[in-house]
Task: structure prediction
Amino acid sequence: MHVPTFARLRRTASRFALPLSILLAAAAPGCNGGVSQIAASAAAQTVAAPTLTGPITGGEHGFPFIGTALDLAAYAYVEEEFFVAGTARAFASAAPLSPDGRWTVTPAGRADYRTRVLVRRPRDAADFNGTVLVEWLNVSGGLDAGPDWAFLHSLILRDGYAWVGVSAQAVGVAGFPSDHPRSALGNAGALKVWDPTRYGPLVHPGDSYSYDMYSEVGRALRDPQGADPLGGAEVRELIAIGESQSASRLATYLNAVHREARVYDAFLVHSRGGGSAPLSQAPEPAREAPRPVWIRDDLAVPVLAFATETDLIGLAFYPARQPDTDRLRLWEVAGTAHADLYQLTVAMRDSNRTPLGNSAIAACELPLNDGPQHYVLKAAVHHLRGWARDGTPPPPAPRLRVVPGDPDRILRDGFGNAFGGIRTAPVDVPVATLSGEGNSGGVFCRLFGVTEPFEPAILAALYGGEAAYRAAVDQAVVDAVRAGFLLEPDAQQMRDEAARVSFPPERTPQ
Result:
């Protein structure tokens, strides 16, 4: 196949081979014979069925690693852990991997594995909305983490989603190998180290096998062999989600594996950089992905790529931008950082409230970004579910305005807030500079962006008083809901946050 240059790709409109609407024509909207069953049938032909055991109990701690501290019972939800065992394939490519993402791969070896999945679902199957969010757990810190659960948990719990976290990578299971540069940091968070009694039976053959393991987990959720992790609930959509390092794995999965596996009905690729993860790596032959790289444009399932300001410049996603198509939407959100204060603190307390101007964590020089990412991400998932279910795509979004150069930079107003992108009240009716750039200190601080509250005199000059400010916020909230970038329950939370902003007393005319 002729592979065009990446410069040419940037100038060429993308086209999809088979719109999902054609597949949906086989079933009436809203019935259970649609895309999920088509995908499940296809997966049965190409993806092996693993065996599930559980719920897993016991161990030295008596609870699963990254088990939530939230009172799930108050939401009529349960949390359970299962082991998944099977034989996974690695993949190889006879040709160099191209920047257009249209890769052709073949199986290249098999290996046995046993990993774990963490499940949070409605206690009663009647309360399940039919959609499972399957998060590729992030191992950037040398341990399993669920950043998208943190961002999305309030949506999941209020709307009846199930969430499944997959320990897909070797570091999360067994830690860094002794010859790895980061092994000196220690492996205390690896499952087999944190609780050798509970997780001793786990076996991970290496990340070359992670993609097929992820496919097999998806098949197991639809067609469980052994234990049933969803308690008998019927699955209509499986949505693959992953943030940061996990988004990089999902990009490679989409380009190399999905077209054959066809397990997942939609993908949320959240905050990836300009490249993607290796197709295979040690101890298998290394097959690196190009940088930058697109998500292939011939997929038949919806993909929503979600980018923050940090991703665009700091993680070099800007050169990997590609046009929207009938199967791809890119949402770039003004005022957001790759990681933020909500994710780090507030999400862990099951509250949507973040007090404006909170101090930075000790390692970072400046207060962390307190922007609207989690609000817009919930709208993204809501639309992605509808796109997979009935073919209705999310609204297209304006791109952040970037000035190309060396380096590229986001165009900003006099207060330091970005132009372009998805707009919400915190950036259109600002009381602070919200940026995905500019922090420093600890090793991850550059990912957290900054919040710099305005001085009282600036607030007074901009709005005059609290009443005018709140009226402007209300209009911006209405606009964002109408545009499809904010859900109504979250709109009220945004109004409530505005009500907590302190204004200087208004002067009485003399």
In short: The CA atoms of residues 52 and 227 lie 5 Å apart. The longest strand covers residues 106-122. The mean pLDDT is 88. Residues 352-510 form one domain.
